[in-house]
């Protein structure tokens, strides 16, 4: 599938993406900086994810594995009253690795549902080109919102590098627990 639409995340979920992702095209606003103390006690701006897309795809998979989604977009505003947005351009979505990752995420989402027989789920997971891109991206985004809230719950109170490391370990443990419980 080729994506023609930009992916636009709004409100508090956009704020989460902006806070934990690097965007090399502009300096982060004070509102979205993720600042922790380094080992010398100095404030450092850090990111967990290199790009908005990386944060989006990880949060989508988390939402799917957790079995949680948030259907309705949040439209929180910044201090000027503008809706907070994070946009992933269609050109990024169409890069080969990004497109393949989105296709895998969507296939996993279809396989993970308990709708229909296993044969029909397998068939649908690998023939999803018939699903229009807006429907596909909206479905993935609904799971991403839940994953973003989980990511924020892990990192929002981090004050130091040590806290960030502990949160990364907690994230790995949560993923392990979710995958282990699904295989039982």
Brief summary:
By secondary structure, the protein is mostly helical. 54% of the residues lie in helices and 8% in strands. A two-stranded antiparallel ribbon has the order 1-4.
Percent in helix: 40-55%
Number of helices: 7
The overall pLDDT average reads 85
* Strand/helix succession: EHEEHEHHHHH
| First-to-last CA distance | 34 Å
State the domain count: 1
Task: Based on Cα principal axes, name the global outline.
Answer: globular
**Strand neighbour order, sheet with most strands:** 1-4
What's the number of extended β-strand segments? 4
Q: In terms of structural class, how would the helical and strand content be classed?
A: mainly alpha
Tell me what portion of residues adopts beta-strand conformation. Answer: 5-15%
* Largest β-sheet summary: 2 strands, antiparallel
Low-confidence stretches: none
Question: What features would you highlight for this structure?
Answer:
184 residues, mainly alpha, two-stranded antiparallel ribbon, 7 helices, 4 strands, 54% helix, globular
Q: Can you give a write-up of this model?
A:
The protein is 54% helix and 8% strand. The chain has 7 helices and 4 strands. The protein has helices at 11-20, 52-66, 90-93, 96-112, 118-125, 133-155, 161-183, and strands at 7-10, 35-37, 43-45, 85-88. It has a two-stranded antiparallel sheet with strand order 1-4. A two-stranded antiparallel ribbon has the order 2-3. The two termini are 34 Å apart. The model has no long low-confidence stretch (mean pLDDT 85).
């Amino acid at each position: 599938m080729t994506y023609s639409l930009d992916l636009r995340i709004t409100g508090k979920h956009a704020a989460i993406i902006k806070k934990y992702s690097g965007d090399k095209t502009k300096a982060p606003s004070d509102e979205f900086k993720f600042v922790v103390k380094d080992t010398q006690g100095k404030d450092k701006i850090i990111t967990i994810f290199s790009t908005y897309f990386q944060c989006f795809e990880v949060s989508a998979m988390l939402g799917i594995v957790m079995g949680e989604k948030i259907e309705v977009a949040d439209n929180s505003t910044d201090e000027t009253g503008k809706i907070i947005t994070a946009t992933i351009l269609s050109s990024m979505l169409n890069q080969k690795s990004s497109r393949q990752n989105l296709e895998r995420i969507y296939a996993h989402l279809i396989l993970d549902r308990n709708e229909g027989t296993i044969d029909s789920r397998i068939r649908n997971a690998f023939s999803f080109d018939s699903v229009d891109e807006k429907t596909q991206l909206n479905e993935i985004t609904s799971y991403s919102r839940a994953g973003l809230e989980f990511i924020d719950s892990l990192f929002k109170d981090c004050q130091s590098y040590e806290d960030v490391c502990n949160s990364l370990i907690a994230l790995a443990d949560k993923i392990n627990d979710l995958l282990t419980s699904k295989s039982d």
